[in-house]
């Protein structure tokens, strides 16, 4: 294989054969394809795109670049009961769906080894949220992971070095060469890790709106269709829901504050944010149908509702936390364990009116600036900072009355900076657009 010839062909708009893509990915994994060649190949793909067969081949080759888990092979340990299911989101602000969905699906008979990530840009990361729980281990050994999924039904953890190593190197080079924005490479990056996790079915939560990775609904729809097609092309049953990110999902945004809201939703679903529940239950129902645990969407939604309302999902979450090293009484006493900020104060609007628009990306950036995310990969995360009581679109706010949010900061200077950013992110007027938490289904 002459790597420059393959790069040149892709640069000129040609199509690569599956065996050529397999060889390129092997070279990316073992280092025989140089950084310069990887960067040039990525740029050629950004400019020329990839055909549907190329996307399927690239994703499959990246999946096979490392370990591929098999949860039903007795030679690797006791086989799991039930289908192995997972959900992946393209990210957002206040997006705590994973913390609810994993135990709901587990309570309905699924096995959920959910491999999650850290915050990226303005979006929050599930691992950062979970690391606000003292002792919670996001990098368990394979044996411990299998035991937790078997006993608790779910385990939300980080990616191990053995899964899809080609993606790790390719993503680092894309990040350094300005080649992140490629639909084909984004799809391969997302799905190679999910395929390597040995899933029986996957549901995608693809966000659209001002706080999403892709704000345009048409771009979001294109990404969702590509993910579904490539996943199915690699033998993984997948559907996608397009969900709204024109406002914070739920009433909180941060790390510990989102864990607390998730615990409240699990233990008192009647008092939970309706939009958060709608998105969570819709995604849960998709997975239950895909995994063969429910005959149709109506039965699946009813099963998910029962698991949440009856407390079975809360029990699964508590078991997962304890099995991964967290406190056994987290659900009963979250205030004893979750970190709290030194400064907690309301952010009042400058005028009375109705919240008519929210720049959700700006809200996420404000939380990162507080220390709730990372400006650089090596930055520490302050798990205590964030927002609670976030006003939704259509909420009536007023100085001295309903605030835009309650801000949790480490000091007064941080509070003032973030409060100014939050006020600038909210538009207060006379009306708000109609709310549709779930926009459409693809697949």
Q: Could you estimate the helical fraction of the residues in percent?
A: 40-55%
How are the strands ordered across the major sheet?
1-4-5-13
Category from helices, strands and their pairing? alpha/beta
Percent strand: 5-15%
So what's the overall shape?
globular
CATH class of the largest domain: Alpha Beta
Mean pLDDT: 92
Short description:
By secondary structure, the chain is an alpha/beta fold. The chain is built from 17 helices and 13 strands.
Structural write-up:
The chain has 443 residues and is of the alpha/beta class. It folds into 3 domains: 3-63, Transferase, Pyrimidine Nucleoside Phosphorylase, Chain C (Transferase, Pyrimidine Nucleoside Phosphorylase, Chain A, domain 3, Up-down Bundle); 74-334, Nucleoside phosphorylase/phosphoribosyltransferase catalytic domain (Pyrimidine Nucleoside Phosphorylase, Chain A, domain 2); 340-429, Alpha-Beta Complex (Aldehyde Oxidoreductase, domain 3). Helix content is 46%, strand content 14%. It has 17 helices and 13 strands. It has a 4-stranded mixed β-sheet with strand order 1-4-5-13, with helices on both faces. It has a 4-stranded antiparallel β-sheet with strand order 6-9-11-7, sandwiched between helices. Strands 10-8-12 form a 3-stranded antiparallel β-sheet. α2 runs parallel beside α4 and α5 crosses α12. The protein is globular, with a radius of gyration of 22 Å.
Helix and strand layout, with pairings?
Blueprint: H1 3-11, H2 18-30, H3 35-48, H4 52-63, E1 85-89, H5 97-107, E2 112-116, H6 126-130, H7 142-152, E3 154-158, H8 165-177, H9 183-196, E4 201-208, H10 217-233, E5 238-244, E6 253-254, H11 256-267, H12 274-290, H13 297-309, H14 312-323, H15 334-337, E7 343-347, E8 353-358, H16 360-372, E9 386-388, E10 396-397, E11 405-409, H17 412-425, E12 426-429, E13 438-442
Parallel strand pairs: 1-4, 2-3, 4-5
Antiparallel strand pairs: 5-13, 6-9, 7-11, 8-10, 8-12, 9-11
């Amino acid at each position: 294989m002459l790597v420059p010839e393959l790069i040149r062909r892709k640069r000129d708009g040609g199509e690569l054969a599956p065996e050529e893509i397999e060889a390129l990915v092997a070279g990316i994994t073992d280092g025989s394809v140089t950084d310069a060649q990887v960067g040039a190949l990525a740029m050629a793909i950004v400019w020329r795109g990839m055909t549907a067969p190329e996307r399927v081949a690239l994703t499959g080759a990246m999946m096979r670049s490392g370990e591929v888990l098999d949860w039903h092979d007795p030679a690797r340990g006791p086989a799991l009961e039930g289908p192995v299911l997972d959900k992946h989101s393209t990210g957002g602000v206040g997006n705590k769906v994973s913390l609810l969905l994993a135990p709901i699906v587990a309570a309905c008979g699924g096995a959920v080894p959910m491999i999650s990530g850290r915050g990226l840009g303005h979006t929050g990361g599930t691992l950062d949220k979970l690391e606000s729980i003292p002792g919670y281990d996001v990098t368990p050994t394979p044996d411990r992971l299998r035991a937790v999924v078997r006993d608790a039904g779910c385990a939300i953890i980080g990616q191990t070095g053995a899964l899809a190593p080609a993606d790790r190197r390719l993503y680092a080079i894309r990040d350094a060469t300005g080649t992140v924005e490629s639909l084909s490479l984004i799809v391969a990056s997302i799905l190679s890790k999910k395929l390597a996790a040995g899933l029986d079915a996957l549901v995608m939560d693809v966000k659209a709106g001002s706080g999403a990775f892709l704000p345009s609904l048409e771009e979001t729809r294109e990404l969702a269709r590509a993910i579904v097609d490539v996943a199915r092309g690699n033998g993984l049953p997948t559907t996608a829901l397009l969900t709204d990110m024109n406002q914070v999902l739920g009433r909180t945004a941060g790390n510990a504050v989102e864990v607390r809201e998730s615990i409240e939703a699990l233990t008192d679903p009647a008092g939970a944010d309706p939009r958060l529940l709608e998105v969570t239950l819709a995604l849960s129902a998709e997975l239950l149908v895909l995994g063969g645990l429910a005959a149709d969407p109506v039965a699946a939604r009813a099963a998910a509702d029962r698991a949440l309302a009856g407390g079975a999902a809360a029990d699964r979450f508590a078991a997962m936390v304890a099995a991964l090293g967290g406190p056994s009484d987290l659900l009963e006493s979250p205030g004893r364990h979750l970190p709290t900020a030194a400064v907690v104060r309301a952010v009042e609007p400058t005028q009375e009116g109705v919240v008519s628009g929210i720049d959700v990306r700006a809200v996420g950036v404000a939380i990162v600036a507080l220390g709730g995310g990372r400006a650089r990969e090596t930055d520490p995360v302050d798990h205590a900072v964030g927002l609670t009581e976030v006003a939704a679109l259509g909420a009536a706010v007023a100085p001295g009355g309903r605030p835009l949010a309650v801000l949790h900061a480490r000091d007064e200077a941080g509070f003032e900076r973030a409060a100014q950013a939050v006020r600038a992110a909210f538009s207060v007027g006379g009306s708000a657009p109609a709310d549709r938490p779930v926009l459409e289904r693809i697949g």
